[in-house]
Write a structure and sequence with these properties.
Number of domains: 1
Largest sheet: none
Shape: globular
Number of strands: 0
Number of helices: 12
Mean pLDDT: 83
Distance between the termini: 43 Å
Radius of gyration: 20 Å
């Protein structure tokens, strides 16, 4: 089944690429290139938002690890978080195994708590993007309803996490029930949602001056849904799936075809591709990190 989904994804990518190249050749490509040459000043802001996205995600992960008794809040912990980016091209979220492995290798925690912390980070990340999507949808109807919608989804998700934790007790997927309904958990979801929001705003900066109907809510929705569906496709890094979905959504928002390739390429470079070498650099830096004795402190979530 996974092979079929990959074949379908790459077929979709090939078709969209061929169509895009054909239409790009027919379109006002000289005008598009000239437009982006004149608007090159937006690229530093896009890169800054992409860096803020990564920083928010890393801070949220460090907070989760600390709650599981892992010593995380220092430069080596930050490097361990960034090292996960080296595996962005791995399929099925396998890059998430790099971070707990690095914390264990550093002697910051035992394998069990580190893997539990990564599972909790992943669960809260999913909840944060669901809250953000709910808020963006509410914004399109009534802007004042965006924050309440996001808070309701967050509260329901954390309550559901506590419920499911009881059902998973004694399994390899067990997470402590005490972890979920805590103020710290709301704070972590807020940080993760902030990461997704900056991710979407980076996309909006690239498309806001283009012809079409792409507003901030549409940009946030498009970037979040494309990333989630790309990651869930099983295709390494969502390459092709995320790109194709971004291009299709822009076309649906009436952005001229000759701009699609430049927008998607610029966005994916800033938010995906440049972070892979950063992850490898973090792995190299971690080779010089001192190895500490394994901690014995009690996780805050279980205290």
């Amino acid at each position: 089944m996974r092979n079929i989904s990959r074949i379908a994804a790459f077929t979709l990518l090939a078709v969209l690429t061929a169509y895009g190249v054909y239409e790009f050749a027919r379109g006002d490509w000289e005008g598009a290139v000239a437009y982006w040459r004149d608007h090159a000043g937006v690229l530093p802001a896009v890169l800054a938002l992409a860096a803020l996205d990564v920083a928010f995600e890393a801070l949220a992960a460090l907070w989760v690890y600390a709650r599981f008794g892992v010593r995380a809040f220092d430069r080596w912990g930050a490097a361990a978080c960034l090292s996960m980016r080296a595996g962005l091209l791995l399929p099925a979220q396998l890059s998430r195994l790099i971070r707990p492995d690095r914390f264990v290798a550093l002697g910051r925690g035992h394998a069990g708590p580190c893997l539990q912390a990564e599972a909790a980070t992943f669960a809260l990340d999913l909840l944060s993007v669901a809250a953000l999507i709910a808020g963006a949808l509410a914004w399109r109807v009534a802007p004042e309803g965006a924050l309440p919608a996001a808070l309701v989804v967050t509260a329901v998700g954390l309550a559901a996490g506590r419920l499911f934790a009881g059902w998973l007790r004694g399994t390899r997927f067990e997470l402590p029930r005490e972890f979920w309904l805590r103020p710290a958990s709301f704070g972590i979801v807020a940080l993760e949602a902030g990461a997704w929001l900056t991710h979407g705003l980076a996309f909006w900066l690239l498309v806001r001056a283009l012809p079409g109907s792409a507003g901030p809510a549409e940009a946030v929705l498009t970037s979040a849904l494309s990333a989630v569906l790309g990651a869930s496709s099983g295709v390494p890094g969502g390459v092709g799936v995320t790109d194709g979905l971004l291009g299709a959504a822009l076309r649906w928002m009436d952005v001229p075809l000759e701009h699609l390739a430049l927008v998607v390429l610029g966005f994916r470079l800033a938010t995906f591709w440049i972070w892979i070498p950063v992850g490898w650099l973090a792995l190299a830096v971690l080779r010089r990190a001192p190895v500490a004795p394994s901690p014995a402190e009690q996780p805050e979530a279980l205290a």
